[in-house]
Amino acid sequence: MDIAKAKRRENIAEYILYLWQLEDLLRALQFSPEAVFSQLVAPRKDIPEEQKHVHLLWYMDLVNLLREEGKEEKGHLEHTLHLIADLHDLHLQLLKLPAGEHYRLTWARLEPQLPRLREILGNPGMSDTELLFRALYAAMLYRIKGQGDKQAVADTLELISPVVAELADMHRKVERGEVDLFKPE
Q1: Contact (CB, 8 A) for 118 and 111
Q2: Given pLDDT bands bounded at 50, 70 and 90, which one contains residue 89?
Q3: Could you give the C-alpha distances from 66 to 2, 72, 86, in angstroms and in order?
Q4: Model confidence band, residue 103 (pLDDT cutoffs 50, 70, 90)
Q5: Which of 70, 108, 117, 168 is surrounded by the fewest CB atoms within 10 Å?
Q6: How far apart are CA 82 and CA 89, in angstroms?
Q7: Predicted confidence (pLDDT) per residue in 142-160, tens digit
Q8: φ, ψ for residue 44, nearest 5 deg
């Protein structure tokens, strides 16, 4: 809960990936309140005992959302998909507007690889921004599990991370009113 709030405030990309990881973790714990408490809440020494129930309730709210959206086995919460759609709108604006000059250079290095990524991930209808998040998440999972071609995972992260990082940074700046998209940065 507190980690998610901090990530949402500081880095929208980390927040989305964090929630995706939590979704998978909650599924692995079979949505059991006891397992969620023992694995995710009880071990946290930074939470006072009297606040631990609040954290458990937050996790269980995520469980309820996953159930309501029919995503008990797979898929991502609509909340995160809406955030990705917002980021994609920003991405499209940055490709055209003056404030996106540096972003366009970063994007140009990645753009030729999009067809290959789309082929690997197998969903031709998703936006470029969602494709990047799904590729990052897959690479993150491969790294955690120690699976896959380590060089391919490293290459994916090296290629995609700068674009997503810059997009997340611009999102934070736009949200805080620190940048005018119509003026060069």
Answers
A1: no
A2: very high
A3: 20, 6, 21
A4: very high
A5: 70
A6: 11
A7: 888 877 777 777 888 899 9
A8: -75, 115
